[in-house]
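Posting here for the record, re: pyridoxal-5'-phosphate.
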Amino acid sequence: MKPATKLIHTGERIDTGATPSLTVPIYETSTFVFDSVADVIKYQEGKLNGYLYSRYENPTVVAVEQKVAAVDGAEAALLFSSGMAAISTTLLTLLKPGDEILCSAAIYGGTFHIIEDLMTKFGVERRFITLDDLANLDRVIGPKTKMVWFESPINPTLRCVDVRKVAAACKKAGVMSVIDNTFASALNQPVASMGIDLSMQSATKYLNGHSDVTGGALSGSKSVIAPLAKARRLLGGIMDPIPAFALGRGIKTMPLRVAQHNANALKVAQHFENHTALECVHYPGLTSHPDHAIAKGQMSGFGGVVTLDIKGGRDAAFRVFDQLKIIKRAASLGGVESICSLPILTSQYGLTDDELVQAGVSKGMVRISIGLEDASDLIADLEQALA
Ligand SMILES: Cc1ncc(COP(=O)(O)O)c(C=O)c1O
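Prediction output follows.
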């Protein structure tokens, strides 16, 4: 089946009994009934295909996990109550005291802080590495390295990392490669087919796509996912059935949504590329982007996030932000509605001037998650704000 067909039909028709519903029902129950002690024993021995308790597994959640695995082209997937629950479960399960994680310095703030502030308490060592290091992992991976964690495209500069190259270097060294594929989504960037061991996504973003679910997802081979599923039972971060239902519904239209996000973002980026009020436009689909060649080699679409660097720096960016009429002032990305955030007040909040320079982030940056409105309305809104 092609992706559009797969995402609609995978995981559906789980109720084929007396109430054969077309769509996945919401199994809003904390626990499940057994007929006999024999059945409980069979369940515990893995011989009964049933459910015990919704912190372990829930039929609605399992059905949507099958959809996520289909999106990602992976053998298995797990859903979590947030992207951060997926990240914390991964780190706590796969790393132990004395292990080292190599993490891209250009990473989501929550990921940085959990590695820097929390994992170090458990004796996990970390090195934050540059894009240049990621391109030359052979010389960076050390004897204690167990995991490499990175993103591509990176927020808010949308710099890109050669995913196949990272996967190959990790494979050669026997190190686990983990990508946060939230910004691209697997429909644009199918990382499982590029040799990545584990893909993490904030399902809050493009997977759900309607800004009404907080969730996280992990996908990979069955052998990579199995210990994470076991640990999720203990750490307790599984997604609830109601958000899982909404997520499954969102995924059915994901190919349409992602294609339109890509098309709208490219239109906006191209329109503003040489605008006199801007220093530059950051979008990997533009030939002027420093990593356009890498992006072209691994992405079928360039995603929905565009960053404008406004001439006049911070004050000018603040004025543009306040003038927007259709595009809403809000954090996050990946929803049907266009939203806009200022990196120095969100993802890069509190960084010194030097740290901002190192991250390639300027005070005039305005990050826009381009939604599914008509692109001409978004362009008009940005034009009037810039004026
Ligand atoms: C790239 C990226 N990774 C992870 C997360 C964390 O996901 P969540 O907010 O769903 O916990 C976010 C949230 O903004 C993100 O942008």
